[in-house]
């Protein structure tokens, strides 16, 4: 399956790999309003597909150099700007709570809104020469697509404050040491690393992945007691799935499970 968009490309292979490619290479895949709308549409479209993992990446060796600052906004009225950022927020919220596992495949520049998109993904991998940061402060503004909140939850308050207030660029090794990147393409090529991560997710049980993601994300924002209750409820549901039956049987009979998402 392949859907035509102007600023992104969406492709889903028969075995369930969905790839969304940010496709504005002339501006290092900067995120404009059209791209945000198309990304939202792609996430909606993917809900109808039988995809099992979503990869987000950028065209021509860069992930995304942030919100599009090449063109002036149509309006500078403060209330209109606030509405615009609320609309953008929908995209980032939906990506974060997307029911499939999501992988940010980061090459080259991953700045500002690009870094904030990556923050919403479950797994972040990068090439060794990737450059990551939230430089908005150098423009007189602040990260406005969840960066002030999600980045600190991922890398810790101390590092996030330093990153956001100084607006520096960081290399992949540093962001790996911060816990932002899960793996960095080193000896193995980046595409091999990406393929391995995608294949791990394809082999996992989809319903358990969806529930685990919800419980972890919702539980993190809740009192411990409420989070533990969510965990117990989700576990009860999952033990009733065919996938759990398959996983337990495969373990007992020493074979590889085949999960069908049921
Ligand atoms: N929005 C719109 N266009 C952007 C962009 C952005 N966020 N980032 C880069 N571009 C465009 C440049 O204007 C340039 O276009 P041009 O060829 O028509 O002049 C093209 O992408 C290549 O960028 P350039 O600056 O020439 O490349 P570089 O290798 O010298 O520098 C960066 C790359 C990423 C360091 C630099 O482009 C940059 O700092 N971009 C802004 C990053 C940022 O502040 N993001 C947060 C936005 S809120």
List keywords for this structure.
single chain, 262 residues, alpha/beta, 2-enoyl-CoA Hydratase, Chain A, domain 1, 2 domains, seven-stranded mixed sheet, 16% strand, binds coenzyme A, lyase
Question: What does this protein structure show overall?
Answer:
This protein has 262 residues and is of the alpha/beta class. It has two domains: 2-202, Alpha-Beta Complex (2-enoyl-CoA Hydratase, Chain A, domain 1); 206-252, Orthogonal Bundle (Lyase 2-enoyl-coa Hydratase, Chain  A, domain 2), CATH 1.10.12. It has ten helices and ten strands. The strands form two sheets. A seven-stranded mixed sheet has the order 1-2-3-4-5-7-10, sandwiched between helices. It is globular, with a radius of gyration of 19 Å. Coenzyme A is lined by residues 27-28, 30, 65-70, 109, 111-112, 135-136, 139.
């Amino acid at each position: 399956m392949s859907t035509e968009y102007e600023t992104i490309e969406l492709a889903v292979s028969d075995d369930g790999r969905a790839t969304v490619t940010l496709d504005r290479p002339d501006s290092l895949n900067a995120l404009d309003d059209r791209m945000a709308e198309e990304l939202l549409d792609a996430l909606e479209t993917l809900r109808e597909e039988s995809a099992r993992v979503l990869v987000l990446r950028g065209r021509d060796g860069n992930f995304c150099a942030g919100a599009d600052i090449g063109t002036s906004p149509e309006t500078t009225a403060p209330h209109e700007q606030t509405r615009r950022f609320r609309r953008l927020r929908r995209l980032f919220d939906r990506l974060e709570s997307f029911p499939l596992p999501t992988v940010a495949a980061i090459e080259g520049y991953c700045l500002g809104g690009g870094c904030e998109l990556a923050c919403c993904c479950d797994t972040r991998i990068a090439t060794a020469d990737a450059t990551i940061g939230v430089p908005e402060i150098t423009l007189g503004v602040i990260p406005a697509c969840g960066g002030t909140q999600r980045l600190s939850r991922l890398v810790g308050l101390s590092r996030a404050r330093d990153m956001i207030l100084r607006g520096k660029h960081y290399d992949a090794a540093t962001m790996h040491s911060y816990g932002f990147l899960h793996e960095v393409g080193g000896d193995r090529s980046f595409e091999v690393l990406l393929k391995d991560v995608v294949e791990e997710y394809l082999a996992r049980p989809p319903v358990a992945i969806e529930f685990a993601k919800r419980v972890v994300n919702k539980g993190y924002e809740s009192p411990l007691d409420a989070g533990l209750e969510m965990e117990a409820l989700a576990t009860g549901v999952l033990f009733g799935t065919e996938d759990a039956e398959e996983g337990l049987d495969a373990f007992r009979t020493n074979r590889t499970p085949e999960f069908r998402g049921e």
